[in-house]
Amino acid sequence: MRKDRLVGGLIVVTLVGAFLVSASPAFAVKQFYDEFKEVYVNKGSLDGAAVAKAKCNLCHEGKSKKNKNAYGKLLDALLDRKKDAKNPEKIRQALAAVESEKSPSGQTYGELIKEGKLP
Q1: CA angle at 111 for the pair 87 and 68, rounded to the nearest 5°
Q2: Quick check: 111 and 98 in contact, CB under 8 A?
């Protein structure tokens, strides 16, 4: 009886672990990602497959959504994730404003995007 309980517990723990490992990461703010895709993929020059592969890493780096890359820090200064998530116009204005900012490579983000490169 005790052995059956132990085996049952191990099975449950294994299944829960497998589920957690296989779960895909959520976008930090889905609406920001959706507007980025609309502006730069649907109406722009970026490859949709590359953007889909980058997902959260368009603005974030590392394993924590609190860690933002240079592009994400610029957008973070212009957008409030709670207040602006339902304001597509403000999101698009922020995306446009960041285009003129210099990236770590020295090019502006707008220049990178026009060349088909991710920020």
Answers
A1: 55
A2: no
Tokens of 74: 């610029």
- Nearest Cα to Cα of residue 25 among 59, 1, 70, 75: 59
Q: Which residue has the tokens 């976008």?
A: 27
Q: Is 13 helix (H, G, I), strand (E, B) or coil?
A: helix
Gap between the Cα atoms of 39 and 88, Å rounded: 11
Confidence of residue 3 (pLDDT cuts 50, 70, 90): low
For residue 95, give the amino acid letter.
Answer: L
Express each pLDDT in 77-98 by its tens digit. 999 989 999 999 999 999 999 9
